[in-house]
Amino acid sequence: MLDEVKPDIILNAAAFVPKAQSDYESSQSDANVVMVENIIENSDAIFINISSMAVYGVSDRVLHSEDEEARPETAYGKSKNNIENLLRCNISPSLSIRIPGLFGPERKSGLVYNTFKALHFERPPVLPEQPLLWAGMDVRDAADLIVKVMLTWDFSIIDRKCVNISYPGLFSINSFVEIAEKLFDKKISYNIVHPLFGFDLHMLNAVGFMPETDFSSALLRVKYDYGF
């Protein structure tokens, strides 16, 4: 297919994505690297790679910049970091776009949907039982920024680097729970304290693209989209 189409640019969003906490250590993450190896061995097109906040891992930092050393702790995070390193060594121009976890009206699973559904039906939501890093973004907002960045990125100047895409501000499971409580006017009994996580968006801002909404507004929008 690559020989026939001869694409100028490839956007790779294919990956094994964890659905449960245990999936982050699954050996299936190895397939993420193999897929990229197969593509770049057979094409010299500009390569846009969808990466993940999982490359950052846990550290003393709260706000994470593209320039800091990646310290992934899970098999999934390591696979995403290995892909980024693979692209840095590749001759063709590339860009890795690091995104948070995604939610949206087509996804009937995950933290946002499951919490909203539980509150809608007046049931206690099932929330993580141990501290973990988390951030979220409506897939429509993420897709909008990804397309804008990939079509305007100057690969002659900024080559084989990464860029963060996210809503501004800091995220945690606790801050999400607080917003959910307000949206449904219900109290959630929950005492696990989760770490804060934020994306440094200076590079995204430098190329002139920032989200047109914020995290709270996106959650309100998707609540109505779900019919809750």
What are its keywords?
four-stranded parallel β-sheet, globular, 15% strand, three-stranded mixed β-sheet, alpha/beta, 228 residues
User: How many E-type strands?
Assistant: 9
Radius of gyration: 18 Å
The tally of helices reads 8
Structural class: alpha/beta
The helix fraction, in percent, is 25-40%
Poorly predicted parts:
none
SS strand fraction: 5-15%
- Strand order within the widest sheet? 1-2-4-7
Based on Cα principal axes, name the global outline.
globular
Distance between the first and last residues' Cα: 43 Å
What sequence of helices (H) and strands (E) makes up the elements? Answer: HEHEEHEEHEHEEHEHH
* Nearest-integer average pLDDT: 91
| Biggest sheet overview | 4 strands, parallel
